[in-house]
Amino acid sequence: MSRDAQLDSESGAEAFAELQPALRKQLAKLGLHGDFDLVLHLPLRYEDETVLTPIASAQAGQPVSVEAEVISTDVMYRPRRQLVCKLQDESGLLYVRFLNFYPSQQKSLAPGKRVRLFGEIRPGFFGGEMVHPRYRLVRPGEPLPDSLTPVYPTTAGLSQSALRKLIAQALARCDLRDSLPADLREGLQLLPFELAVRYLHAPPPDANASTLEYRTDAAWRRMKFDELLAQQLSMRMHYRNRRAQTALALKASGRLCSRLIESLPFRLTGAQQRVWMDIEKDLALPHPMNRLLQGDVGSGKTIVAALAALRAVEAGHQAAVMAPTEILAEQHFRKFDEWLSPLGVRVCWLSGSQKTAERKRIGTAIKAGEVQIAVGTHALFQDKVEFADLALAVVDEQHRFGVKQRLALQQKGQGLQPHQLMMSATPIPRTLSMSYYADLDVSVIDELPPGRTPVLTKLLADTRRAEVIKGVRDACKNGAQVYWVCPLIEESEVLDLQTAIDTHAALSAELADLKVALVHGRLPQAEKAAVMDAFKAGETQVLVATTVIEVGVDVPNASLMVIEHAERFGLSQLHQLRGRVGRGAAQSACILLYQGPLSEGARQRLRVIYEHTDGFRIAHEDLLLRGPGEYLGARQSGAPLLRFADLTQDGDLLEAARETADRLLEKMPEIANFHVSRWLAGGAQWLRA
Ligand code: ADP
Ligand code: MG
Q: Closest residue (by CA) to atom 16 of ligand 1?
């Protein structure tokens, strides 16, 4: 309180740079690094101090502003030390209690002083009382504020009144000129910037409280649009810069790609053909491709990656294919080898678990250009690995990799940037991908190969385990194979492992007539591969696994999956896991065993996974449940998300911002620069790679 008073007594406008270092540090915690950042620091909510309420007519639970005269102020010691101030207006008495107070407060609240207080009046021991209200001494007849009082997001030690003052000064000092030309702004039906921003910092008393609170009124829309526009502009600028760089143009030369397509035991789906055409077109340009290929689990992304890699080979260069786990990398290697070796292409595989001598040998072959396609884990981008002539980098399950790792692979080109194809089986809702992947081109495989039967999903309480085990036995007797997925224990990889080992022991005993195997992340690579091979070959019927099978494993004969403690898994994980079955022609099922009582979040997740099979729909629900920050995970970690716009509600604004961004960059680059510098001056960065 005394601190506020102190700051209030300071006067005169200071430019941001001249503020005390301690104050600047606090502001930095709020992401405020310059004057304009203060202008864009918008209120969380408002308090209405424009009208006074008589003490006697205040309703419990409603914050009110009252003005009263001090009758007495005393320190009391029961039930604990506190300052109690008795006040009075024409309508009645009010007791105000401060549990923490400064001696100076007792002095300033002397009998006869007039005080304006803001807070809730509750029935107390002596009558109506307020606890720790905001208050201010006033002169008799001092006018009431003529706008709502903003309440800003703040940080410890920075009072509302200090922030308000800084913001008011910034508003007075800054150039609030509209960044959009009037005709463009009117076409978009947006308010002028200055009007909108001033309105939000100081709305009139009759402002619509609910549209303000839900951030749907016209002033908020303008701010959200500007924020989205800045994001789109900065990402599209980045996109354009990259497109301006030079890369190897990979033109179709030999006939390898068409021979591969002809040799496949299946026909490409329409969606696969379409995305392959997108990619072909990109690769033929002398600029680096940066394309994200999205497709639900099982939609057939691998063959598209193989075609892209083959195109690089066809044009006389090398390609690298990186996967997040050894199981997946090895599986890719085998697929690539099976598809491409008959065409005379040399494919190798590189992983951290290989013996040093072997890795050296492969490294030498890559460097000498004897190998045309290198498949592997993150071992591929280690410093030691050098490519003779890398023209394309494919990154599978790209969300599993950090930005740094992907950048490192990009650096492997010889001076020129390699083309990049990123793949993801985590479908990203359109608005989210339009927003956070605006620096990439996006292709979507929105169709599954024919002949898949939808997976039947069942939710069963853990108490019905015995029935489930019987179901597993019956399925295996009919020639099917089963995944049994053990729960993820966040805090402890060791416990995680132990559960899997215990479950394996228990199931082996209960299903003594079947072959039950175990695979988990800690298994040595060779053993892991042997276990997977045996399962693929049908030699084992039940595979107990930790979530290592989440990504990419492809065993068409596996038609039943049991997931234990399904309530502990995230939605996209459940969807990915379930996608491991339903790959053959047989009717497949996924049994989600859960242990109650379920939290509300778990209940909702299980309902979504039970009701939906479409990955994009599940992704959308997931976004609604978790919000974009959680959802985007690795790519965005550390980078600021949108502050004002809400992608689940402001899709229309996002579309408009995207269109406007491209138009500005094309026709009015100086306006684009002005807008971006205004919004991003404080260092907000949507982009990390
Ligand atoms: P994902 O997109 O999850 O990586 P995969 O590339 O592993 O999917 O493909 C899943 C399975 O579907 C593989 O067995 C693959 O050979 C098969 N497949 C891919 N494309 C087709 C197609 N057009 N017709 C039939 N089967 C296909
Ligand atoms: Mg895959």
A: 300
| CB of 682 shorter than 6 A to ligand 1 | no
Q: How would you write 319-347 as a 3-class SS string?
A: EEEECCCHHHHHHHHHHHHHHHHHHCCCE
Is residue 170 within 8 A of residue 36, CB to CB? The reply is: yes
> Which of the listed residues 262, 299, 307 should we mutate to test ligand 1's pocket, taking the one with most ligand atoms within 8 A of CB?
299
Ligand 1 contact via 576 beta carbon (within 6 Å): no
Q: β-strands 481-485, 63-76: how paired?
A: unpaired
Question: In angstroms, rounded to a whole number, what is the distance separating the alpha carbons of residues 110 and 197?
Answer: 40
* Predicted confidence (pLDDT) per residue in 123-162, tens digit: 877 778 999 898 989 998 889 989 999 999 999 889 898 9
The greatest distance separating any two alpha carbons of the chain, rounded to the nearest whole angstrom, comes to: 98
Q: Is the CB of 536 under 6 A from ligand 1?
A: no
Q: Is the peptide bond before 597 cis (omega within 30 degrees of 0)?
A: yes
| 634 pLDDT tier (thresholds 50, 70, 90) | very low
Mutate to test the pocket of ligand 1, among 266, 269, 321, 334 (most ligand atoms within 8 A of CB): 266
Output the six-digit token pair for 478: 């009919």
pLDDT exceeds cutoff 70 at 686: no
181-212 pLDDT, tens digit each: 999 999 999 999 999 999 999 999 888 888 88
pLDDT digits (tens, 9 = 90+) for 427-466: 777 888 888 888 889 999 988 898 777 899 999 999 999 9
Type of residue found at 624: L
Residue with tokens 């001494």: 137
- Number of Cβ within 10 Å of residue 596's Cβ equals 11
pLDDT, residue 492, reads: 59
Distance 298 CA to ligand 2 centre (A): 7
Residue nearest to atom 27 of ligand 1 (CA): 449
- Ligand 2 centre from 394 Cα, in Å? 12
Q: What is the mean pLDDT of residues 544-548?
A: 82
Per-residue HEC secondary structure of 643-661 comes to CCCCCCCCHHHHHHHHHHH
- Candidates 661, 674, 680, 668; CA nearest to 179 is 674
Residue of the CA atom closest to atom 9 of ligand 1: 300
Q: Is the dihedral of CA 616, 622, 628, 631 positive or negative?
A: negative
Whether residue 269 has its Cβ less than 6 Å from ligand 1: yes
Closest ligand, as measured to the CA of 579: 1
Give the DSSP per-residue string, 347-402. EEEE-TTS-HHHHHHHHHHHHHT--SEEEESGGGGSTT---SSEEEEEETTGGGS-
Instruction: Say how far apart CA 523 and CA 427 lie, in whole Å.
Output: 30
Q: Which amino acid does the sequence have at 262? A: E
Task: For the beta carbon of residue 387, count every other beta carbon within 10 angstroms.
Answer: 23
Distances (CA, A) of 593 to 50, 183, 335, 462, 606: 57, 59, 33, 5, 10
What's the one-letter identity of residue 408? A
Nearest Cα residue to atom 12 of ligand 1: 300
Q: For 87-96, what is the mean pLDDT? A: 94
User: Does residue 324 contact residue 396 with C-beta atoms inside 8 Å?
Assistant: yes
Q: What is the pTM of this model?
A: 0.76
Q: Is 297 in the pocket of ligand 1 (CB under 6 A)?
A: yes
Ligand 1 centroid–CA 557 distance in Å is 14
Torsion (CA) 11, 15, 21, 27 in degrees, nearest 10: 90
Nearest-angstrom CA–CA distance, 480 and 539: 11
Q: Which token pair is 14?
A: 């200071």
Tell me, in angstroms, the distance from the centre of ligand 1 to residue 300's CA: 3
Separation in Å, CA 526 to CA 142, 352, 378, 494, 582: 82, 12, 18, 21, 28
Q: 584 CB contacts (<8 Å, ≥6 apart)? A: 556, 557, 559
